[in-house]
Amino acid sequence: MAPLYLALVHYPVLNRRGEVIASAITNLDLHDLARCAACFDLPACFVVTPLRNQQALAGRLLKHWCQGVGRELLPERAKALSRLRVVTSIDEAATQVASECGIPPKIWASSAREGVGNLNYAEARTGLKDRGQAFMLLLGTGWGLAPSVLQGAHAVLEPIRGVGTYNHFSVRCAAAIMLDRLLSNTID
After folding, report:
1. Closest CA to 90 of 130, 140, 127, 56
2. More exposed terminus of the chain, fewer Cβ within 10 Å: N or C?
3. C-alpha span between 36 and 30 (Å, rounded)
């Protein structure tokens, strides 16, 4: 199986008015995305933000849980959170992946918008069987990844669809569903 990295993108993302913004990091997102990365044995989950105050916040949270009292109280959580890496941009994350894997990653973006996705999960699972490749899955916070990110990706995964008309999963739920569809041994 090819290495799959996750990136929780806080910039560039959209707000509810469709404007490009940098969104705030949340403690809950970091914990849950780290757990997903650990459960699916991903090499890393990048936290992408150019904002120094948000990088500092993430750094304090990681220090507490990976080195401080949090590690003493919940060592298993430290194992999960140690997979998080704070970076300033998607390009910086891709550079780290390329350095580790010896090849630039294929970038897969995600979107809940209909008509945007051009890669279904069966095709993506087949792609992950190519051990000579690396992949990075981008998850947008706020109201989703900016159009420039979607256009710059190698592919956009098809949206997750529920059974009703409401379609706005939290990024944490979406990550778990996508990783299960991409990596679970129970599918096929």
Report:
1. 140
2. C
3. 10
pLDDT of residue 181: 96
Specify the pLDDT at position 116.
87
pLDDT of residue 178: 98
pTM attached to this predicted model: 0.95
- Max CA distance (Å), the chain: 47
Mean pLDDT, residues 25-54 taken together: 97
Q: What pLDDT does 75 receive?
A: 82
Q: 31 vs 4, 95, 133, 155, 172, CA distance in Å?
A: 19, 24, 28, 27, 9
Domain count along the chain? 1
The CATH number assigned to the domain holding 87 equals: 3.40.1280.10
Name the nearest CA neighbour of 107 among 5, 23, 35, 2. Answer: 5
Query: Is 188 inside any structural domain?
Result: no
